Task: inverse folding
């Protein structure tokens, strides 16, 4: 038993202390935009409602604007564009994959601005707000107006959530076999308790990651606290319902099973 807890403590120490090696640590919010249609000679940026955020400030008030990575004439076109939203930076030509990504302190409230160098014309969208820590959009350039459609892969998120729950349930049942539980009542109790707690636990983790990103420090802490609560609840249920084994055995089973599922969960969340 001591070895299991030593492993858990070591894993947590690595996970919680690793981000502290850098001053600017943790995941960064992102906005991904995929374009469909002809993207030839198109340049794109996001205009922000706020005048600045993090390292970004109103580009039109900056003296040094040489570090933009695009043709100065193209940048001048964006600088001359008039709008009530602010031009920060990150003016790029749409890449070969028809994608645009703002991966460091993106604006929360923004408009999509596109410049067509072939026709010397601009197109601008209405304002949008980031809906998740990493927000995905798709834009159809053939449409009359620029509309950013939410293209977050919710199906993949659901499949990964179900997979984590199923894998955890399998582990819990295998550990129950190792602890030599014999009755159907015991296995139904273990399965039912874990089904409920794992659904709640994984939904909480998914929401944390969806809105705040997969930040090792905060996500790991929330996961640890939630897993401790799950252990306490399951141990109480097993002591009250499963009478074929002693209370000590039921508590030990809950501890071992949850420790193993916690370690596996760390691997699935941060490594997989």
Result:
């Amino acid at each position: 038993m001591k070895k299991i807890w030593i492993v858990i403590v070591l894993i947590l120490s690595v996970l919680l202390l690793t981000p502290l090696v850098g001053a600017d640590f943790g995941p960064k919010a992102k906005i991904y935009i995929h374009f469909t249609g002809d993207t030839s000679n198109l340049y794109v940026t996001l205009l922000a409602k706020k005048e600045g955020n993090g390292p970004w400030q109103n580009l039109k008030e900056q003296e040094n604007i040489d570090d933009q990575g695009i043709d100065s004439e193209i940048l001048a076109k964006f600088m001359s564009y008039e709008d009530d939203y602010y031009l920060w930076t990150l003016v790029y030509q749409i890449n070969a994959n028809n994608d645009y990504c703002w991966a460091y302190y993106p604006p929360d409230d923004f408009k999509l601005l596109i410049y067509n160098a072939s026709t010397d014309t601009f197109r601008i969208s209405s304002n949008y707000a980031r809906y998740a820590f990493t927000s995905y959009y798709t834009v159809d350039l053939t449409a009359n107006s620029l509309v950013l459609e939410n293209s977050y892969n919710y199906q993949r998120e659901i499949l990964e959530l179900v997979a984590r729950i199923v894998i955890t349930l399998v582990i819990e049942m295998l550990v129950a076999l190792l602890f030599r539980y014999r009755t159907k009542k015991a296995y139904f109790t273990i399965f039912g308790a874990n089904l409920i707690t794992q659904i709640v636990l994984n939904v909480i983790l998914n929401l944390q990651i969806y809105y705040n990103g997969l930040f090792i420090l905060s996500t790991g802490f929330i996961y640890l606290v939630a897993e401790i609560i799950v252990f306490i609840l399951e141990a109480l249920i097993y002591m009250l319902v499963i009478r074929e084994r002693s209370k000590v055995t039921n508590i030990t089973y809950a501890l071992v099973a949850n420790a193993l599922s916690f370690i596996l969960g760390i691997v699935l969340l941060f490594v997989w």
Notes: The chain has two domains: 30-150, 154-270.
